[in-house]
Amino acid sequence: MTAESMKETAETEFTNPNLSVLFSADDIEKRISELGSQITADYKGGDLVLVGVLKGSCVFMADLMRAIDLPMTIDFMSVSSYKDGTVSTGDVEILKDLSNPIRGKDVLVVEDIIDTGLTLTRLLDILGSRGARSIKLASFLDKPEPRINKELSVDYTGFVIPNEFVVGYGLDAAGRYRNLPFIGIVKNPAEA
Ligand code: IMP
Ligand code: MG
What global pTM score does this model have? Predict the structure, then answer.
């Protein structure tokens, strides 16, 4: 057995030593269940549509909707952010728009993480002109330190985190790690 193939058998993507676990799958499950109960109570009698922002929110969306015990629908949008390397420029381009109108609906935008908040600010501007009855925001993670739009309020937050680059549970580094069942901090981004 070569050194390289031994390394492959010892380490898997989920046990990658370049990651340290910030929130385990159990931590996440508990928190989503709390958020689901809260959203269920708040939207009783409403006309709820969850709007997932692709791709990062896909895992959160899948878990969150199964924790909401109400009649509801889902839709997705895809917007481009991070046009300038890893720094958000605030220029948001709609790559995929909603499939259905939101007029009269109670929209809950579902995001993976709010960082500077610029992407969400633009997105909420765009959705705000479409006649929804209400628009609120659920973000799995909130990283308040780099926030540029201090006015942006998050109605439902999974976890508030320090100013670290995190991956897993839908979040990626250059497209990788979205499949991790936990949230991890990349210890050495150069090796990611
Ligand atoms: P904002 O416009 O700076 O708030 O950008 C938010 C978007 O940046 C998120 O939806 C993510 O796609 C991405 N992002 C911000 N921080 C992280 C992180 O720590 N890990 C992975 N993606 C991140
Ligand atoms: Mg995103």
Answer: 0.91
- Tell me: the pLDDT tens digits for 26-74? 999 999 999 999 999 999 999 999 999 999 999 999 999 999 999 999 9
Q: Is 115 a catalytic residue?
A: yes
- Closest protein CA for atom 19 of ligand 1: 165
Cα end-to-end span (Å), the chain = 26
- Out of 84, 115, 155, 172, which one is annotated catalytic? 115
Distances in whole angstroms, Cα of residue 147 to Cα of each of 113, 151, 162: 11, 9, 12
Structure token pair of residue 7: 């390394």
Pocket of ligand 1 (CB under 6 A): 56, 81-82, 88, 111-120, 165-167, 171
**Confidence at residue 92, expressed as pLDDT on a 0 to 100 scale:** 81
- Residue identifier of the C-alpha nearest atom 3 of ligand 1: 116
Which residue is associated with the tokens 């937050």? 157
